[in-house]
Amino acid sequence: MTVTTAPENVKGDAATPRTPGNRWHSLTAVLTRVWLVPVAIVAWELGTRQAESFYFPPPSAIVIRMHELWFSGPASDLFLTEEAIENFGPSLGRLFTGWILACLIGITLGIALGRSATLYDYVNPIVEFARATPPPALIPLFVILFKIGTPMQLATIVYTVVWPILINTVDGARFLDGTYADTAKVFGLTRAQRFFRIILPSAAPKIFAGMRVSLSIAVILMVVSELVGSIDGIGYLILFKQQSFDLPGMWGGVVLLGILGYVLNASFILVERRVLSWHRRARQTT
Amino acid sequence: MLDVVNLRHTYGEGPKAHQALGGIDLKVSEGELVCVVGPSGAGKSTLLRSIAGLIKPTEGHIRIRDTEITDTPGDLAVVFQDYSRSLFPWMTVEENVALPLRRRGQDRKARRAAAGEALNAVGLAGATGKYPWELSGGMQQRVAIARAIAYRPSLMLMDEPFGSVDAQTREDLEDLVLQVRKDHRMTILLITHDIDESVYLGDRVVVLSKAPARVAGELPVNLPFPRDQIATRELPAFVHLRAEVGRLVRGKEHPAAPATEEENLADAEDTSRSGERPAAG
Ligand SMILES: Nc1ncnc2c1ncn2[C@@H]1O[C@H](COP(=O)(O)OP(=O)(O)O)[C@@H](O)[C@H]1O
Ligand SMILES: [Mg+2]
To answer: Does the pLDDT value for residue B74 go beyond 50?
Structure first.
């Protein structure tokens, strides 16, 4: 089960407009789409029970183990155990810090590149080259540069995740509609207004698409960096459970990552729908 | 107020070069409403874009109140033909109108008040919180006009502002322009390819020839105010002017006997009216 399968499902869901009138309609639409999920889980349960393989515990065992390990803590800690707090926190911290840093760098740089033809001509070949370098190949470099631990992990995440944001932002900012630009010039908008009120919103649909892709990749890179060299995090837990032959625990980590990826993507789409509601609705009317 | 001297503009270079403006001279005095008519592709938008500082003309001078224009003048507003793209879809109607006022040094409250007032003037007081794409084409163009009014420019440029709305809306918007001009004492340069419209709205009509555009002629419009869509258009003077402008647009010679010509045209009025409008472009 990988993290990247989640987006498509939720994206299709997001495309259906939700008015009170068609709520029942969309409910049945969701049901027809998700019925396979419980079927698959039941099949998985039956299959693994039948096989009685040490490496493939049944999902019920995985869920019980997940509860034991991570979700049987005190209510004051939101039922999280110590192990959960000590590992989920750093993972999410790296994920979000890395992703947000990448967003800031990608959007700022992307708009600069998109709005300046000269800068674009100079920098674009470098961008193309840097983007073509597989990020994991740079992990050894980051390890010497930043030492094992959070800085190196952040570097890995930021370096990988920045490209979709950067490239989409350049794309969005480059092709600013001519009449938008003329209007901004004629009415003497200030630099700040041009940036925040015109260029950024008009590029926003593209930027958001890039940010969403990046978020999914950030989850993958978070895990990879925790498998390579780390003393905590969900990736580290998976490795640790494997080494101590706690297979249900190891699978629990995998399931947790799947859920995390799904929830992140769904939440992102929720935010995107709010922020870009003008875009969706303007396109529906014209 | 506005003084255009020997304005020339050529797009591109070498064998692909296209001379759009072939030396235009044009004066607009304070408070005047001048209509510029010309066939599609003549170079009307090129002229307007040069005055607005959106393109740098190859040759010639543009002066506003005796200052040479090199960049977009500070007190100039433009109403573009393509209203759906000149309003920003991510802002409400009110935000669209208030956006340029920041530069005027007004605070938030004053900007909102000014936007509200301008929207009221164009009959859109109820649409402040709506988004442009929730409005019809005519209403969107009203918002664009409101934005121009709120900006309080000394010169308003309009580039075929009603080229893509239906006939009824078009008449309403034409009357709105006359109203705005009267209430706000604005100087307006309006570009159109519609001969009737130019005569109905203008104090003066300037006719451009085909590319490279030159001034083919100009006619003062001495029709009485207030103008009325039905009554003004049936005046013999209106019909006559329309014919004169039509002749200039087509590059025909001035008729030898204007008096009889006028009578003939008065008879032909109803049939020729829609035929005088070239296709939009
Ligand atoms: N950016 C441009 N590059 C090259 N040619 C252009 C450009 N803009 C307009 N033209 C050409 O210049 C001529 C005049 O255009 P324009 O001023 O838009 O005419 P009008 O507004 O009178 O219809 C047209 O033939 C058009 O194809
Ligand atoms: Mg034009």
So the answer is: yes
Phi, psi dihedrals of residue B206, rounded to the nearest 5°: -110, 125
Collapsing DSSP states into helix, strand and coil, what is residue B77? strand
Q: Retrieve residue A78's tokens.
A: 């939101």
**Residues around ligand 2, an ion, CB closer than 5 A:** B 45
Q: What are the CA-CA distances from residue B210 to residues B3, B20, B22, B69, B248 (Å)?
A: 22, 9, 10, 26, 11
Instruction: Report in angstroms the alpha-carbon separations of A11 from A34, A204, A205, A277.
Output: 14, 17, 14, 15
For ligand 2, the distance from its centroid to the CA atom of residue B38, given in whole angstroms, is 10
- The torsion angle over the Cα atoms of residues B195, B196, B199 and B205, rounded to 10 degrees, is -10
CA angle A191, A117, A160 (to 5 degrees): 90
For residue B100, the distance in angstroms to the closest alpha carbon of chain A comes to 6
Start-to-end C-alpha separation, chain B: 29
Domain count, chain A: 1
Alpha carbon of A43 to those of A50, A56, A59, A248, B234: distances in Å? 10, 13, 10, 18, 83
Q: Is residue A87 part of a domain?
A: yes
In-domain check, residue A63:
no
Phi, psi of B152 (to 5 degrees): 50, 60
Domain annotation covers residue A107 = yes
A281 neighbourhood in chain B, CB within 8 Å: 131, 133
State the Cα–Cα distance between residues A203 and A168, nearest whole angstrom. 9
The predicted model scores a pTM of: 0.80
pLDDT at B179 > cutoff 50: yes
CATH code for the domain of A232: 1.10.3720.10
- Is residue B192 within 8 A of residue B280, CB to CB? The reply is no
The whole-number average pLDDT for the span B177-185 is 89
Closest to B143 in 3D by CA, of B103, B167, B115: B115
Percent with pLDDT over 70 in chain B: 89
Q: In one letter, which amino acid is A168?
A: N
Nearest CA in chain A to B49: A182
Residue at A206 is within a domain: yes
**Mean pLDDT over each residue of chain A, to the nearest integer:** 86
Among A117-126, A247-256, A268-277, B55-64, which is the least confidently predicted range?
Answer: A117-126
Q: Which domain holds residue A128?
A: 75-285
pLDDT of residue B257: 45
pLDDT score for A19: 58
Q: Tell me the two tokens of residue A129.
A: 């080259």
